[in-house]
Amino acid sequence: MRDHLGRPLVAVTGIGAVTSLGFGVAESWSRLLAGQSGIRRITRFPTDHLKTTIAGTVDLPDDEGLTSPVRVERIAGMAIEEAVSEATIGSKGAFPGPLFLGMPPVEVEWPTRFDLARRARDPSYAAMTKQAEGRHDVYETFLYGGVGERLAARFGTRGAPISVTTACATGATAIQLGVEAIQRGECDACVALGADSTVQPEALIRFSLLSALSTRNDDPAKASRPFEKNRAGFVMSEGAGALVLENYEAAKARGATILGLVSGAGERADNFHRTRSNPDGRAIVGAMRNALADAGLEPGDISYVNGHGTGTPENDKMENFGMRAVFGENAPPISSNKSMIGHTLSAAGALEAVFSLLTIRDQRLPPTINHDEPDPGITLDVVPNVARDATVRHVLSNSFGFGGQNVCLVLSAEPT
Fold this sequence. Notes:
- By secondary structure, the chain is an alpha/beta fold.
- The chain has one domain: Peroxisomal Thiolase, Chain A, domain 1, CATH 3.40.47.10.
- Helices cover 34% and strands 18% of the residues.
- The protein contains 13 helices and 15 strands.
- It has helices at 25-33, 68-87, 110-120, 125-131, 136-142, 144-155, 170-183, 201-209, 248-253, 282-295, 313-327, 338-341, 348-362; strands spanning 10-19, 22-23, 40-41, 54-55, 99-102, 162-164, 189-196, 239-247, 260-269, 304-306, 334-335, 364-365, 388-389, 394-401, 405-412.
- Strands 1, 2, 5, 6, 7, 8, 9, 10, 11, 14 and 15 form an eleven-stranded mixed beta sheet that branches. The protein has a two-stranded antiparallel sheet with strand order 3-4. A two-stranded antiparallel ribbon has the order 12-13.
- Helix 2 runs parallel beside helix 6, helix 3 crosses helix 4 (125-131) and helix 7 (170-183) packs across helix 13 (348-362).
- The protein is globular, with a radius of gyration of 20 Å.
- The protein starts with 9 loop residues before the first strand and ends with a strand.
- It comes from Muricoccus nepalensis.
- Pathway: Lipid metabolism; fatty acid biosynthesis.
- Belongs to the thiolase-like superfamily. Beta-ketoacyl-ACP synthases family.
- This is Beta-ketoacyl-ACP synthase.
């Protein structure tokens, strides 16, 4: 079985998920279809005087005092374990392929910076950098490559793990790298992962200063409102999504259950602005068209779009513009998982790929909740508020990141 370009088909044989809605695929998906929100008040750190006091946190046992990399590693491990277990591939601790990780950018968090400043008796960056010399504990704690090394050792993946960060497209980039490795014949199986757990004071304040976050703190469940007239920013969230990808023929030969295919991946860069898309939309349009071309599909073949749909005025307007440019008047239904789980940043592309596969499996479109007042400028069918039964064979999953880092995936049903 080969695709239209003669490459091996890439199957998904296992999926794992951790979200603000729950631990594991089953709980996250059932609550997503039910239109439930995982957004809540932040209790991890004081939020006095902050404009935004809500997030879609994943709260772990003994979470107090954990750094973001430690939390990322824990939830990433949960998602990988679930995916590998479902795929029933290899023996425990000996996965027969590489690991591709989508990770947040490296960032030393405030408590550590404050400690370095106190020790140096000087708050300047130069003094803190000097004080950090020889501090291997600081280096190892905030080195996300270290997360990859430890996860690779835990699950016995082959070769050096590859860690990437492409803003909000990170999880989709990790999947694209895994798909291309299989297509090139470098491996018959791999794990692709996106994970993020960076709800911490500095990150929250930085996004707030960019005017990117919702400040609808009075009712957290109503805060994330993608494509709706009164949307006013995204809700920062956490989570992890993992996929076991395999050469389709190899997976069938070993009797694996096929959850679907990653049949196409397209990317297109846009260096117009650090947070905004170029008004001409060429990168967003290009990424979607590249994904369709890579899958050998026409726009009319797409049954549903799992939208990037962050809930910022700019993003949703541009996604609507791009959808119309690609699909014309016959755009398929679209919905945003972020209306319920928030924007999981580095994890978003992977989690939304997982939910796209479940959409195909169950033939049911998850809703966009909080769609109370339609925006006349958004001319798409956004599957408002309630899940919908549908015939779904191909899903386009969009990931449009800050800095113009755009990746789109096509997820498809198993060939009949």
